[in-house]
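User: Before I run my own analysis I want an independent prediction to cross-check against. Here's the chain; please return only the structure tokens and, at the end, one sentence I can use as a sanity check.
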Amino acid sequence: MLHFIVNPSARSGLGKAVWKKTERRLKEKHADYRIHFTTHPKHATDIVSELTGDGLCHTLVVLGGDGSMDEVVNGIRYPGKVTLGYIPVGSGNDFARGLGLAGDSMQALDSVLNPTVIRSLDLGNINMSGNAHRFAVSAGIGYDADICHKVAASGLKKLLNKIHLGKLAYVGMALDRLIYCKPAEMTITLDDTKTLHFKRTYFAAAMNLRFEGGGCMFCPNALPDDSYLDLIVVADVSKLRALITILPTVFSGKHVHMKGVHIYRCKRADISSSLALPVHSDGEPIPPLKKISFSAVPDFVRVIVR
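Assistant: Structure tokens:
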């Protein structure tokens, strides 16, 4: 049986329309499925926790955005027994982009109904004051998280979603938040062996997939199944250089050799900041923190790719 976890509010209500179209196809194909609608934040986590608590194998199909996927992976009780399908409806869709999934909802559904390629996906973990939170795409602290916080609070994305330009919310807010960004002194320890110091850090992001922020290829070599995280740190450059040289090139991945851009591979990164900075998990805001750890989770899930 396919369990569909549907966020009808995804992309300002587009999720509801996509589900109606999806259900028509499911009935045409006489598919064996069950529908679970989310009605409030973190609802998907509760639904999935209950579904997977029996320790049996399950196929969960997420219809929503990256935030919906974040909620789902945080509810999975036995990751090795779960296969994920994904019908992307969100504004950023970095989960689909990072795994090369179909962007069209009906093509994605066809892959779920007739899978030919299934691959493993590592999960990342955020540890904050003893509390753990998984992520599928990426997690960050600082400037990139600040963008997510402001986009979520501004209502700009909802407005742009209505004209199918939701990704522009991140671009516009990126320029706005760079102006007001306060770089922090940061110490980062990788795998308990290598310690790094940065005087003026804009952000640090742990990437499980290559993209975040609606297509920013922060870590072009990040792999979903290598049991490592790729960590990008942008620090010790002027805002002008960041604006003129780094920001315009992140969508193509050409920023990786520029001054101020540092990329590392690790299983764990412990971060200490001189300022409490915003945090995000798969684009979803988490309150500001001074200390945080990102790590690769030993467990993995399977994802239907084609």
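Sanity check: The mean pLDDT is 93.
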